[in-house]
Write a structure and sequence with these properties.
Blueprint (H helix, E strand, L loop, with lengths): L1 H19 L1 E8 L10 E4 L3 E2 L6 H16 L3 E2 L2 H14 L12 H11 L3 E11 L7 E10 L5 E10 L3 H6 L6 H14 L3
Parallel strand pairs: 2-4, 2-5, 3-5
Antiparallel strand pairs: 1-7, 5-6, 6-7
Amino acid sequence: MYNSYVKRGGVVLFFLIFIGGCGSTVRYINPTANFSYIKKIAVLPFNNLSDDRYAGERIRNSLIVDLMSRGVFEVVEQGEVTKVLSVIFREAGVEEGRAVPVDKETLKLIGEKLSVQAVILGSVDEYSGAGSGGSIVSIGARMIDTGSGIILWQAKATETSRSVLRKLIGIEEVDRSELTRRAVKSALDTLL
């Protein structure tokens, strides 16, 4: 009797995995990190490595909403972050619209001007829509201490609607906005 329950449970789990699509998350938390001093953070624009022009902003917006809903940190308003970054980069002679590596001095400036203890930044590695292979959203995010420049947390999350069984039985794919929400949640779940 016990074996039949185990077999049925295994079949149900197998079925749910293939119907729901796949996802994976990898994380790193600095063993010396102390998150208790972090009260206020800023989410910087994400580098967009995908073909979707607006993927970086979509991920950033979703991340900010998820962070705010958790209520762990105060999050600086996006417009204020953009304004401060423009001033910092203009003073450094950086051409607007260019991807800029954020070094230790820049992090300190951001921390001082926005009164934040940490920033979250990252990249959109893949953001493709429904096609023959299905939708996929893959992001990388990291939290960096603005005072020291040390990475406190980093995660990579991938969500996909690609599923052999889903295709075989003709179930509609999960759309990118839902995959975006799932990828962001999955990444942040490793932090909070």
